[in-house]
Amino acid sequence: MSDFFKGLSKVRYEGPNSDNPLAFHHYNPDEIVMGKRMEEHLRFAIAYWHSFAWEGGDPFGGRTFERPWFDGGMDAAKLKADVAFELFTLLGAPYFCFHDADVRPEGESFAESRKRLEALADIFENKIAETGVKLLWGTANLFSNRRFMGGAATNPDPDVFAYAAATIKANMDVTQRLGGENYVLWGGREGYETLLNTNLGQEMDQMARMLSMVVDYKHKIGFTGAILIEPKPQEPTKHQYDYDVSTVYGFLKKYGLEDEVKVNIEVGHAILAGHTFEHEVAMAAAHGIFGSIDMNRNDMQSGWDTDQFPNNVPEVALAYYHILKSGGFTTGGTNFDAKLRRQSIDPEDLLHGHIGGMDTCARGLKAAAAIIEDGTYDAFLTERYAGWNSAEAQAMLKGERSLSDIAARVEAEGINPQPKSGRQEYLENLINRFV
Hints:
By secondary structure, the protein is an alpha/beta fold.
């Protein structure tokens, strides 16, 4: 145990009328929503990287946080693990997530880095057994070290590709060992800064080969979790090959991996791609590749991925609506890929950030459930597309009518359809009743 959170108690649900800033006001893990405990719906996870590895820097300034585990070796990594599981326990979070570089210091060789990761996994195993906190997913950091400046799987140097493959294998082994329910691949530098030095076709083939090997290895070791790709359009690269959900689906389809890989969708990445978060969730559900989410928000006045804690209930509610309509999470969950502001330097700020995020998600989930249980919105959608239930409409949709057949019927029957209102303002008002 450490004294980093000394004097702070476990966060409890006290209800919306409580004025305790270190209590949940809306997140009640035992509250039943649509027949299931709220905790089981939301499946909250805490991100190891932003909470414990990030130093508070920005593009124009360095470290603002002073953490006792910074600038240390394995002893510091062990202290970081103690503090991390203390935070997980204080918040009552059922899951956590990590990159290898978040939990262990870099070694002088790949072998040394791998051994250090496995030593931390020993510690994690004991802490998981002691606390009951589980691993939602593991992943590899294939973007921070300078060796990855030209990409990992997409690097022009095959030795970098091989190093990335070995790193992924090591992290998949640890993820399985710790009972992780997913394995995530985020291609932070799997893209290009200029086409002048880039062979797009070559790089995408390399990326697909790496992903195919990951899928093969999953089956070889009997990993039962999901393999997830996290889409992002840009930053740090000018263009990333996993731009958004639809781009990822097209990539998977091209290489025959659409039945093997799903997506982990981040709010901030959706915004950078020019989409809403609900759009990306709905698109993933429509393609049958929805897996998990990274919950955060961007500052609309900043041009980068600011990774702030969520506080927009309507935005979150619409996302959870689509999640619930698609059957809810299976192996996935709600991971807080969110970090404190660089001026929020106190230990309790980590609690404040997560408490607000968890309360926001709880309100969004309950609003989404209320929309579904009320039925008015779903009834509107059903009625809007009701014409497609007719025999002739179904024949067109199933390919039983040619273009000539349809044209002949339009003339013979004198079909002259008139527009019908989309009623957007009515629907916006309807949704606002619940949030």
